[in-house]
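Protein chain data
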Amino acid sequence: MSNNKKFILKQDDCLEVMKQIPDESVDLIVTDPPYLMNYKTNRRKDKSHMFCTPISGDNDSLLIQLYISECYRIMKNNTAMYMFCNSNKIDFFKTELEKTGFKIKNIIIWIKNNWTAGDLKAQFGKQYEMIILVNKGRKFFNGKRLTDVWYFDRVSGKKQLHQNQKPIELLEQCIRKHSDENDIVFDGFAGSGSTGEAALRTGRKFLGIEIDKNYFNIANKRLERVEQEIK
């Protein structure tokens, strides 16, 4: 990536694009892959809304296995990755990460300002998601030491560009803690571009991939706007 270009966003299958990324060329990964839950929202009255369509690859465990392996390859030595994960599949994600060679440093608990619906009669509402912090080698964090419980409001209502959108403030915390200005931050499941916006607003560069054309267009416009704002 050139010094003048702040972001590169590709619309394609992440595994195909990642094959073109050189070994040990990425400084940090902050990524929100499919949770293997075949998730779609059931709360919208308009069932034709894009949020009511299951996330692409959300039942493909091989995709996650191969993605984790490629993440390890493209990361520089002594770097970190934050990977969002649902509690139902935490064992699978942990096993695959460790099998690939990552060292698990924390299972961060992100506590939100609301909770899920789910089975209203037999299941308590879930108010958190997990973020697995791993190292390739050993990566020191920047600044003061934090706890592994983080409080950030979820993105909701009309502000949502993606049904699984993560708050910018949370992503910025990840990025500031484990990278430096002008570092390259990668996300192979870019969605609506939240990780990219957080990277640009913290003075980093962003390399992202999104397979869905609608979300790619949303993310690309969003990042172009942010790039103009921070000039």
In short: The CA atoms of residues 168 and 194 lie 6 Å apart. The longest strand covers residues 75-85. The chain has one domain: 7-229.
